[in-house]
């Protein structure tokens, strides 16, 4: 049986520590990003949209005091409003964007094509019922956010998610419920007559 040299694990330990430090150094915080984009979305404050049916028009342009040097791409996301994050850890916002869970739904990602743009997005069927706002990130060549803009806190809108219960299913449930009540009444009457005989 051979014994490992005491210093043999040191290079591996240095690699692991270096990787962890690099990851911590690479963390991007929303508060450190400049609010370089002005973002607007078509829903009015408090408006209710239906998942799978309604569309959102998102417009954005560069803030007049900002520079777009280094912008290579733009990513637009749908983010949970603070009211829809309460008591839901899986939706919580975090200043460290690698830990942020508020912006889970990507609307679009495309090359940065200048100071302004517009896009249309049909609310996906898997977007759950909640209040939302729109956020756009300006990304550099590595895909890291270097600027952002959002509709919050100016206003939030609501999405009514797909429940999976269609009108035909409700009708069928009502008919079967009525049938089961009628069948129960029938069997109660038949059983009562048997006892009386």
Describe the protein in words.
By secondary structure, this protein is of the alpha+beta class. Helix content is 24%, strand content 29%. The protein has a domain at 27-160: Immunoglobulin-like, CATH 2.60.40.2550. The protein is built from two helices and nine strands, in the order αβββββββββα. The chain is elongated.
Structural class: alpha+beta
For the record, give the distance between the C-alpha atoms at the N and C termini, rounded to a whole number: 92 Å
Average pLDDT, rounded to a whole number, is 84
Mind telling me the CATH class of the domain at 27-160?
Mainly Beta
Strand content: 25-35%
Shape summary: elongated
User: Spans of 5+ residues with little confidence (pLDDT < 50)?
Assistant: 10-25
Range of helix content: 10-25%
Mind summarizing the main beta sheet? 6 strands, mixed
- Total beta-strand segments: 9
Instruction: Please give the radius of gyration in angstroms.
Output: 28 Å
CATH topology grouping of the domain at 27-160: Immunoglobulin-like
Order of helices and strands: HEEEEEEEEEH
Transmembrane segments: 171-190
Pfam family, one: NAR2
Keywords: Cell membrane, Membrane, Nitrate assimilation, Signal, Transmembrane, Transmembrane helix
GO molecular function: nitrate transmembrane transporter activity
């Amino acid at each position: 049986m051979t014994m490992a040299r005491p210093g043999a694990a040191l290079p591996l330990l240095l690699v692991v520590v270096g990787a962890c430090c690099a990851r911590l150094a690479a963390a991007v915080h929303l508060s450190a990003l400049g609010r370089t984009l002005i973002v607007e979305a078509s829903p009015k404050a408090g408006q209710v949209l239906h998942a799978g049916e309604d569309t959102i028009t998102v417009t954005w342009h560069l803030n007049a005091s900002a520079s777009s040097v280094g912008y290579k791409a733009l990513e637009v996301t749908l983010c949970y409003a603070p009211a829809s994050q309460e008591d839901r850890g899986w939706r919580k916002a975090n200043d460290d964007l690698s830990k942020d869970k508020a912006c889970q739904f990507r609307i679009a990602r495309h090359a940065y094509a200048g100071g302004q743009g517009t896009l249309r997005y049909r609310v996906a069927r898997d977007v759950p019922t909640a209040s939302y706002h729109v956020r756009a990130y300006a990304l550099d060549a590595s895909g890291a956010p270097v600027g952002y803009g959002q509709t919050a806190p100016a206003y939030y809108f609501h999405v009514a998610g797909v429940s999976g219960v269609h009108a035909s299913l409700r009708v069928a449930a009502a008919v079967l419920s009525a049938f089961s009540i009628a069948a129960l009444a029938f069997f109660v009457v038949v059983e009562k007559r048997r006892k009386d005989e």
